[in-house]
Amino acid sequence: MAIERTFSILKPDATARNLTGAVNALIEKAGLRIIAQKRIRMTREQAETFYAVHKARPFFGELVEFMISAPVVVQVLEGENAVLKYREIMGATDPSKAADGTIRKLHAKSVGENSVHGSDATDTAAVEIVQFFSGNEIVG
Ligand code: CMP
Question: Which one, of 116, 95, 111, 102, lies nearest residue 7 by Cα?
Answer without folding.
Answer: 116
